[in-house]
Backbone:
């Protein structure tokens, strides 16, 4: 009888330890998946931002109207990024919040800089403020990417 009580206690103890590890592993896996989703959504954003940067330097065939479309695509992709960041379910690092704010400000500057311009003109001909805002957008994207631990 005594052996069966000890055996039952040992089995119960191992079961509790295993359950605790399993929950911890599940939580870690959930966090890793959420982080991966954030990084993946950032990758979708990177190509559009790079296209704008190429257009400003004249190395890409980007017109103002294409740039305006890109700004809309960036906003949509960025909304996905923000949604994924919210799914992390934890307080976001101050560095991430700062990068998000800088990114949003750069987006607004780009929109303001492109408004009222001829849609057929080359993006390399945009006012310096818009070109600077696009560079700021690239920098804030890199900061956001880095602050979230994405490569």
Residues:
């Amino acid at each position: 009888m005594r052996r069966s009580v000890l055996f039952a206690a040992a089995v119960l103890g191992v079961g509790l330890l295993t359950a605790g590890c399993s929950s911890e592993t599940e939580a870690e896996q959930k966090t890793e998946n959420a982080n991966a989703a954030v990084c993946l959504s950032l990758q979708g954003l990177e190509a559009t931002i790079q296209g704008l940067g190429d257009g400003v330097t004249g190395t890409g065939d980007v017109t103002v109207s294409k740039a305006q479309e890109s700004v809309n695509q960036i906003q949509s992709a960025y909304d996905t990024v923000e949604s994924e960041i919210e799914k992390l379910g934890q307080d976001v690092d101050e560095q991430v919040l700062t990068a998000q704010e800088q990114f949003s400000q750069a987006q607004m500057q780009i929109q303001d800089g492109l408004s009222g311009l001829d849609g057929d003109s080359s993006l390399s001909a945009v006012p310096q403020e818009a070109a600077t805002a696009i560079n700021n957008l690239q920098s804030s994207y890199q900061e956001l990417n880095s602050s979230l631990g994405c490569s």
Notes: Residues 21 and 27 are 10 Å apart (CA to CA). The chain has one domain: 26-147. DSSP finds four helices and no strands in the chain.
